[in-house]
Amino acid sequence: MIEFRAVTKRFDDGTVAVDNLDLSVAAGTITVFVGPSGCGKTTSLRMVNRMVEPSSGTILVDGVDVRGVNPAQLRRGIGYVIQQAGLFPHRTVLDNVATVPLLSGWTRRRARARAAELLELVGLPAELGARYPVQLSGGQQQRVGVARALAADPPVLLMDEPFSAVDPVVREGLQDELLRLQAELDKTIVFVTHDIDEAVKVGERVAVFRQGGRLVQYAGPDELLARPADDFVSSFVGRDRGYRRLSFVDGGGIEPAEVPTTRETALATAERAPDAWTLVLDEEDRPRGWLPPRSGPAEEAPGGGVRPGGSLYTRGTPLRGALDAALSSPSGLGVVVDEDGRYAGAVSAEEVLAAIRRRRDEAGAGAGGAA
Amino acid sequence: MTLSWLFDPAHWSGTDGIPVRLLQHLRYTLVAALAATAVAVPLGLFVGHTGRGGVLVVGGSNAMRALPTLGLVTFLFLVLGSGEVSALVALTVLAVPPVLAGTYAGIQDTDAGVVDAARGMGMTGWQRLWRVELPNALPLLLGGVRNAVLQVVATTAVAAYVGLGGLGRFLLDGLRAFDYPKMVAGAVLVAALAMVLDLLLALLQRAVVPRGLRLAARGRGRGPARVVERGRTEVAADAAMREGTE
């Protein structure tokens, strides 16, 4: 576990990079620090392994104040992955991966054997070990970077924009790979990114920072999307940005549930369900709106109390539509329709997010264990 | 004419023979180059590694390069008196800037991400210097040494003017005696020595520069252009150019 206690970093020129940060990163999770540039996310990360020293406050790794540990010693026990991979160009891939074990005094033979294991773990063919970094693609270099960080089997991994320098397709693959690895290895990972899509994809917990080094919200990705803490977060999470990724996930994974329904024509006599929203349909079974539950807010709206519904989600289309339907619906349930626009069921935002999570786990599965 | 002078057996023996002069020249060159390297490499490593005094080093190197060779040799000859020492000091002083600039530029040119990763993985300052920065600096460092050696070979010839031995004697004595074949032969020998030494250093460079870096240099094409582009001094660019033209 990593704890930030009232940590502030003020640079010599007076800029405050991190402002009184209190945060704890649970062991065995991927925690993402996300925010625009200049928000202090990288500085916060770099204070964990003392690449940057805080101006005040305390950082504990597994209960130990990092400032009590010799920096070199500390860093050998914490994996470190950076944006451009930072591989040593003069060393072979295998020797790059063996760096920390060698620093820690392993024999060359043992360190290389371990390095070979790691190449396999990150999905690189063994023969790449004899090559030099310049001979690898960007994605391969980044995998080597991850392998190198994992070589001494550190419990904590710091990843600073690790996938930002590779193209989006390769990035997706690397993210999936990271989730797969994490399911297997169960490290405590702090992952810095400026990309909210990446944050909600890889993060089990997401810390949103804003300029001036202030932590604005620290929550699970579902909550972050559904309930942004303030305008800054909602604009940063922004529907079109935050949900963009969902448009690539097809909607096969969700099961629409039955909800109480009533005909538009029968509204006058309609029995409202006691504590569930009732969906109003026309003759063609097309959704018209929602009727609040009897136990709900008592205000009597005109038109028999029918609230206009939100957007509709057509079955089989990308999940982005489903989440949008759920979040825009007064009942909190997104209406699912078939290709002809007829009512087919309803789905909650939680279910949509669960479906996304299942997808994520499947993508990262392989070993099948849940992260 | 020149050829017959060169192949005249009479010119291959005695205290003014080609072998003796060649060895003298070689000795001055090696002593000056080694002394300059011994001074400039540690200084360049220190400045490059710590980032302290970079401006001073670059400025100082440029200033030293601006010194007129002959003037310096003459000046030291007058100050320190005749003899080899003053000549060797002058030659060393001239050889320092290229080596210093090459070393400094080499360390500075090491990718910032690579150095950051080295730190972040728990290398101490020394480990970073020896295991990461120095290997990465080798191409430019050795480029600087090659530069220095060429300069010393050339300047040693001129230093015959203050009574130094070496191949420059053929040039100077030939000039005095209007013995043009002797002069030309001297010039040819100096050029040949320079080429042979440069070739040997090129081979050394091949042998000690890690393969990964040579591959990287090939991949990225014109390495020196990058150095210039980033606003390095002319000195650094020069040193780099030596490497680039290899």
Please provide the ordered H/E string of secondary-structure elements of chain A: EEEHEEHEHHHHEHEHEEHHHEEEEEHEEH
- pLDDT < 50 stretches of chain B: 221-246
What Rg of chain A is obtained from the alpha carbons, in whole angstroms? Answer: 25 Å
Major beta sheet summary of chain B? none
Please tell me the CATH architecture of chain B by its name. Answer: Orthogonal Bundle
Residue fraction in strands of chain A: 15-25%
The CATH architecture term of the largest domain in chain A is 3-Layer(aba) Sandwich
Net shape of chain A: elongated
Give the count of structural domains of chain B: 1
Sequence stretches where pLDDT stays below 50 over 5 or more residues of chain A:
298-302, 366-371
CATH superfamily of the largest domain in chain A: P-loop containing nucleotide triphosphate hydrolases
CATH homologous superfamily title of chain B? MetI-like
| CATH topology label of chain B | MetI-like fold
Total number of helices of chain B: 12
Instruction: State the separation between the terminal residues of chain A, measured CA to CA.
Output: 16 Å
Quick check: average pLDDT of chain B?
A: 84
Number of contiguous helices of chain A: 13
- State the strand order across the main sheet of chain A: 6-7-8-3-9-10
What is the tally of beta strands of chain A?
17
CATH class of the largest domain in chain A: Alpha Beta
Q: Determine the strand fraction of chain B and express it as a percent band.
A: under 5%
